[in-house]
Design a protein that fits this description.
heterodimer; A: 400 residues; 15 helices; elongated; B: 245 residues; alpha/beta; six-stranded mixed β-sheet; five-stranded antiparallel β-sheet
Chain lengths: 400, 245
C-alpha cells in the first residue's frame, strides 16, 4: 500500500467533491447556517409571539361585581384587559378562546373581608391550561389578587398591633456556587451532543454515497479499478476524504455554534432572562476529540453500505434508516437524569452523547472518557476493516 | 504478451446457482498482434477481459500479462495494461486534463515526464482545444478521446478493449478502430472483444470464438474459413456455436 497513491486518490476526490453542489450544501453550508437559523428563527418567533400576546386585548369576565367592588376595579384596570359582561357560558367561551379567563367572587366577599370575618373565602379563576394567552391573563389576575391579599393582611396586622416583620422571622438566601460553564453548560449539554453527532453523520453521508454508489452509477468504478492503484489505496483515499468531510462539517457546526452564542446571546436573553449558555474552549476541544473515532465509524460504515448499493438512489434508501439508528442514541443527551456509567461507556454513539453532555457541563470523568475513546476506537477499526473487505468483494463491486 | 491457461471464473448466485462465466479459456496473443474474442452477449467476453485486467480474480487457472501473473502480481499487471470499455466512464466534474493526469499519477508518473507525455497525447489526439473543459460538458467523441488518452498515458505494452465501439456513432467508432490499429503498429499486445463480425474481420490477427464461457474455435480468419469451408465470418460463427449446442 502506497501513501502516495492514497494521497492522489484523496486529492482527486477532494477536487471532485468540492465541485459537487449537493455535498457542498449538506457538508459546508448546512452546518454553518443551522445554528444561526435555529437561534434567530426560534428566538425571533418567540419574541414576535410574546409581543403579540402582550399587545392584544384580553377579554376577561368577572362575575359578582357587587361582592368585590375594589378587587373588580383593580382587575378591570389591568393593562389590555377588556371586561366582558357576565354570562353563564364562560366555560364554552374559554374553550372557544373568545374569553381568556373568568373570575368568580363569593357572595359578600369584600364585606366579610373588611369586617374581619375569619372564614375561608375562595376567589375562583377559570382558565385554559396550556393556552398561552389564557395563562398570561391568569398570571395578571393572580398578581392583582395577591397584592390585594397582602394589603388586607397588612391592614389586619396593623389593627392588631403586630409588626410586619413578625411574618418573616428570618431571611432565606440562595446562592449559586457553580461556574457559569457548569450552569450554562448543562443547557448546552442537553442540545449540543445531539446536533454534533447528527452533523458528524450527515457530513459524511453525501460524500460516502457519491464516492461509491455514485461511481457505480456513473460507470467510473470500473475505470478506477482498472487503474494502477490497489483496492486498499482506493478505500483509504476515499475513506480519508469522507472522514475529512465529516470532521469539517462537525468543526464548522461548532464554529457556527460558538459564533451564534457570542453574537446571539443578547437575543437569547430577550426571550428568557435565565437562559445562559457558557462553553469553554476546553469542552469544545474535548467534544471534538470524542467525535474523532465516531467520525471514523460513520465514514467507514457509510462507505461500506453505499458501496453495496447499485446506484445513488438505492444508497439513499439504505442510509435513510441509518439516520434513525444514530439519532436515537444521540437523543439520550436530552433525557434528564441519564448519567454516564462504565456499562453505558461501551455503547457506541450513546457513550459519546453522554460524555459530550458531561464535558459541556464542565465535568471530565477521565476514566469513563478513556473507556469511551478506547471502545469507540475499537469499533472504528472494525468498521474500517468491514469497509476494506467490501471493496475486495466482487459481488459487492459488480452487484447487478 | 498475454497467455491464459485454463482461465475459469465461476459466479455463485442464490437464484441461478453456479454460473461458469469463463470456462477453461486458454489463448495466447503476441506483441504487435490483435486477438479478437468474438461472442454473443453473455458469452463470457467481458468477464475474461476483466479477469485479464485484474478487476476480477479468476476462480481457477491463471494468465500472464506482459510477463506478470494476474493472480500473484495484480498491481504490476495493472501498470502494464491499458483497459478501455464502453463501461469505463469519465469523472464528469474533472476536466479532460485532470482526468488523464489523475490516472497518470496513479501509474506512478509525475512532474515534467507526465506533463510532456500528456501534451504529446493531447496533441496527437487533437484534444488541446477542450483540455480544460469538464468531462460532463464534452461530446461523445471527445469523451472517447479522453478515455483513449487515459488508457495511453502510462504507455502500456498491453491493451485490452472490451466492446469499445458499442453504442458509438460511426465517426467515433472509426476513431477507436484507428486507435486499435495504431496500438498494433506500435508493437503493443492487443486483446479486444466484440460481437460485430465486420470489426473482427477488419482488425483481428487471430479470432477466438467464445460461447457460454468456452473458447470453441480459434485461428486466423483464413484458417477459420478453411477449417469450416465457409467464407463469411458470421456463418462460421453460427456453425461453431451450433455444433456445440
Amino acid at each position: 500500500m502506497s501513501g502516495r497513491n492514497i494521497g492522489i486518490v484523496f486529492r482527486k476526490e477532494l477536487t471532485d467533491t468540492l465541485r459537487d453542489r449537493r455535498t457542498l450544501i449538506s457538508s459546508i453550508l448546512l452546518p454553518l447556517l443551522l445554528f444561526p437559523l435555529l437561534t434567530v428563527g426560534f428566538a425571533g418567533l418567540a419574541i414576535v409571539l410574546a409581543r403579540r400576546a402582550t399587545a392584544e386585548a384580553f377579554p376577561v369576565m368577572l362575575t359578582g361585581k357587587e361582592h368585590a367592588p375594589e378587587l373588580w376595579r383593580r382587575i378591570a384596570r389591568i393593562e389590555n384587559f377588556k371586561m366582558v359582561p357576565p354570562s353563564a357560558d364562560y366555560v364554552r367561551q374559554i374553550n372557544d378562546k373568545t374569553l381568556r379567563a373568568a373570575v368568580e367572587f363569593p357572595p359578600d366577599f369584600e364585606k366579610k373581608l373588611l369586617a374581619g370575618v375569619e372564614e375561608a373565602q375562595i376567589v375562583k379563576v377559570y382558565h385554559f391550561q396550556g393556552e398561552l394567552r389564557s395563562v398570561a391573563a391568569l398570571r395578571k389576575i393572580e398578581k392583582a389578587v395577591r397584592e390585594y391579599q397582602e394589603e388586607i393582611v397588612k391592614q389586619r396586622l396593623d389593627q392588631r398591633g403586630v409588626a410586619q416583620k413578625a411574618l418573616t422571622p428570618f431571611e432565606f438566601e440562595k446562592q449559586n456556587v457553580a461556574s457559569a460553564e457548569k450552569v450554562g453548560g448543562n443547557i448546552a449539554g442537553f442540545l449540543l451532543p445531539y446536533f454534533i453527532i447528527v452533523l458528524c453523520l450527515t457530513g459524511a453521508m453525501y460524500p460516502a454515497m457519491d464516492l461509491t454508489a455514485g461511481e457505480k452509477e456513473r460507470g467510473t468504478l470500473e475505470t478506477l479499478l482498472a487503474s494502477a492503484a490497489s483496492r486498499m489505496e482506493l478505500v483509504f483515499g476515499k475513506f480519508l476524504l469522507v472522514l475529512a468531510m465529516s470532521l469539517v462539517t462537525t468543526l464548522l457546526s461548532m464554529i457556527s455554534l460558538v459564533l451564534t452564542i457570542l453574537l446571539g446571546a443578547g437575543l437569547i436573553r430577550r426571550v428568557s432572562s435565565g437562559f445562559v449558555i457558557a462553553l469553554s474552549v476546553k469542552s469544545l476541544a474535548a467534544a471534538f476529540f470524542l467525535i474523532l473515532p465516531l467520525a471514523v465509524i460513520f465514514s467507514a460504515v457509510l462507505l461500506a453500505i453505499s458501496l453495496f448499493a447499485r446506484n445513488y438512489r438505492e444508497a439513499q434508501s439504505y442510509v435513510g434508516p441509518l439516520i434513525f439508528v444514530v439519532i436515537l442514541p444521540a437523543l439520550v443527551s436530552f433525557v434528564p437524569g441519564m448519567e454516564l456509567n462504565p456499562r453505558l461507556a461501551l455503547v457506541p454513539i450513546l457513550n459519546v452523547s453522554l460524555a459530550a453532555k458531561e464535558v459541556f457541563s464542565g465535568n471530565y470523568p477521565w476514566k469513563a472518557l478513556g473507556i469511551i475513546l478506547g471502545s469507540t476506537s475499537l469499533y472504528a477499526v472494525a468498521a474500517l476493516w468491514w469497509a476494506v473487505r467490501q471493496f475486495h468483494r466482487e459481488k459487492v463491486l459488480f452487484r447487478t | 504478451m498475454i497467455e491464459t491457461q485454463q482461465l475459469t471464473k465461476v459466479f455463485r448466485d442464490k437464484k441461478r446457482g453456479e454460473i461458469r462465466a469463463v470456462d477453461g479459456v486458454s489463448f495466447c496473443c503476441q506483441p504487435g498482434q490483435i486477438y479478437g474474442l468474438l461472442g454473443a452477449n453473455g458469452a463470457g467476453k467481458t468477464t475474461t477481459l476483466r479477469v485479464l485486467a485484474t478487476i476480477l480474480q479468476p476462480t481457477s487457472g491463471t494468465a500472464s500479462v506482459a510477463g506478470h501473473d494476474i493472480v500473484r502480481e495484480p498491481d504490476v499487471v495493472r501498470r502494464k495494461v491499458g483497459f478501455l470499455s464502453t463501461a469505463t466512464a469519465l469523472y464528469g466534474r474533472l476536466t479532460a486534463w485532470e482526468m488523464v493526469e489523475y490516472f497518470g499519477r496513479l501509474h506512478g508518473m509525475d512532474g515534467n515526464g507526465l506533463r510532456q507525455r500528456m501534451e504529446e497525447i493531447f496533441t496527437t489526439l487533437d484534444m488541446m482545444e477542450f483540455r480544460d473543459r469538464r468531462c460532463d460538458k464534452l461530446s461523445t467523441g471527445m469523451k472517447q478521446k479522453v478515455s483513449i488518452a487515459r488508457t495511453l498515458v502510462h504507455d502500456p505494452p498491453v491493451m485490452i478493449f472490451d466492446e469499445p465501439t458499442l453504442g458509438l456513432d460511426v465517426m467515433t467508432a472509426r476513431t477507436i478502430v484507428a486507435f486499435i490499429r495504431d496500438c498494433r503498429a506500435q508493437g503493443k499486445t492487443v486483446v479486444f472483444s466484440t460481437h460485430v463480425m465486420v470489426e473482427a474481420e477488419k482488425l483481428c490477427d487471430t479470432i477466438g470464438i467464445i460461447h457460454t464461457g468456452k473458447l470453441l474455435a480459434e485461428g486466423t480468419l483464413a484458417q477459420l474459413r478453411e477449417r469450416y469451408r465457409l467464407e463469411d465470418l458470421e456463418d462460421i460463427f453460427v456453425r461453431v456455436v451450433d455444433e456445440r449446442s
